[in-house]
Amino acid sequence: MAEYTAWENVPIVMKLSTAAKILDVHNNTVHNLIKGGELRAKKVGREWRITKEDLMDYLGLCEPDPCDRLREVCRLVISYLEVQTRPDSDIVKPTPLTDARTTFLKRLTQQLREALGEDVDTGFDLQNSVRRR
Q1: Domain that holds residue 33
Q2: What's the number of domains the chain is made of?
Q3: Are the beta carbons of 92 and 126 closer than 8 angstroms?
Q4: 8 Å CB contact between 126 and 83
């Protein structure tokens, strides 16, 4: 039986039983964490496999990807810009939009979408989250 005293010694992919040894818990506890969605794992055949990264993430040892936060901010800005440029929007707007400002905001929205490199579904309903007139 291997001793895991440093993360460098932990295998990249491990069995459920190995993860249980590392966490110093029973196999059933790890199985319950997986079933409850708290610990990511993949089923390979009849056995669960857990990556070192997923185990570290469960323990809160992974650094968040700064790009994820940037993507989140871009999606929020896109939602805001889309609402601001929608003529039928009843969101309280600080200043009336001129044609030039509307064109600028639409161009900015498009550039953010291109920078994200993905089809953006913001999943955020700005219209229902802002105080109405």
Answers
A1: 7-58
A2: 2
A3: no
A4: yes
